[in-house]
Amino acid sequence: MTRGNGRVTLEDIAKATGFTINTVSRALKNKEDISRQTCEIIQEKAREMGYVRNYLASSLRSGRTKTFAMITGTMSNPFYAILADLLQEEAGKKGYGLMILCSRDDPETEAGAVEMALSRQVDGVLISPASVDSPGLKNLRSSGLPFVLLSRYLRMEKDDSVIQDDEQGGYLAGKYLIEKGHRKVAYLSYRHVVYSTRTRGEGFRRACREAGIPDQDVFEAETAGDEEILRQLTEWIRKGVTGIFSFCDVEAWSSLTLLEENGCAVPENLTFVGFDNILGYIHFPKPIPSIDGNLREEARVAVEVLRNRIHEPDLPPQHRVIPVKLVQRKDS
Question: Are residues 28 and 123 both part of a single domain?
Fold first, then answer.
């Protein structure tokens, strides 16, 4: 027998099994003071009756909702979609749900997402801020809610953060192109991403300096819009650039598509190197070498760091760097 709203309660399960409400509650949580046999009997009856745990009631008692919020750019970018999937898996292992909010890399939209997360009383936030002076970040800091910067690092702030080794990734990309014989190389980013755009460029330039590539043969641009990107690419090709490091895989594929669709004369030896190793998770028709930042490990560590902050709020700032590696494929 259930209540009028159809929700099965602990009391209903207790009546059906003959155990006390307290025993039922502890058996459903697999508490060690309840025998394995009793847990199995109660859990089987709960499944049979369609019991769903009332997290709202639990949160009122414990002060926690067992929910994290992920605030990030947009799910149309495979990087964020893959990372969200892995974060949900890792959070689930620890008994947490994941609420996903998209900022579209707009500070005002991001601020609204932070307010939404706070209003839902999540236990913590994983955020890839759209800007250094993000109003959403300021709101998070003043709220006291635990949060972790995801794939971002603000050097002057004392925030917990988990990043890929962007500098080393840029270095490996540059070194790969140079070892393949490219003597005129370029680094292209479609937009400025907090911390990562600059740091990947620093690694790329370090590889060029070590190899003795003259400064005039190392090009760099941060540009947006198909027309401007196409103009930049064709200009580099005209100047003899044959190796291009793209900020991420998606941008590398977009650049290749732009050149092909506009009938540009693309040198046979033009090579793109991307970042994120999206092909390690989903298949695309254009295989390219890419820097693998180990998104699975980033997700695991991010959840670990956030839980550390929740349970030990006085910990010093946690800054974790995920090692990267180059994944070689057929050049594009």
Answer: no
Q: For residue range 113-140, list pLDDT tens digits in order.
A: 999 999 988 999 999 998 888 899 999 9
Same domain, 187 and 223: yes
User: Are both 122 and 239 inside the same structural domain?
Assistant: no
What average pLDDT is seen over the chain? 90
Pick the residue with more confidence: 54 or 41?
A: 41
- Condensed to tens digits (0 to 9), the pLDDT of residues 279-303 reads 999 887 788 999 999 999 999 999 9
Coil, helix or strand at residue 162:
strand
Identify whether 264 is part of a domain: yes
Long-range contact pairs involving 261-264 (C-beta distance under 8 Å, separation at least 24): 262/230, 264/230, 264/233, 264/234, 264/237
307 is in which domain, residue-wise? 64-163+295-321
Q: How many Å separate Cα 4 from the centre of its chain? A: 43
CA distances for 209 relative to 19, 124, 243, angstroms: 73, 42, 15
| CA distance to 75, 76, 79, 85, per residue, from 282 (Å) | 14, 14, 10, 13
The tokens for 94 are 């620890």
Q: Is 225 left (phi over 0), alpha (psi -120 to 50) or beta?
A: left
H-run or E-run covering 277: none
pLDDT of residue 227: 95
Mean per-residue pLDDT for 263-272?
86
The two structure tokens encoding residue 215? 């400064």
d(C-alpha 106, C-alpha 110), whole Å: 6
Judged against a pLDDT cut of 60, whether residue 5 lies above it is answered with no
Q: Kindly report the CATH number assigned to the domain that includes residue 233.
A: 3.40.50.2300
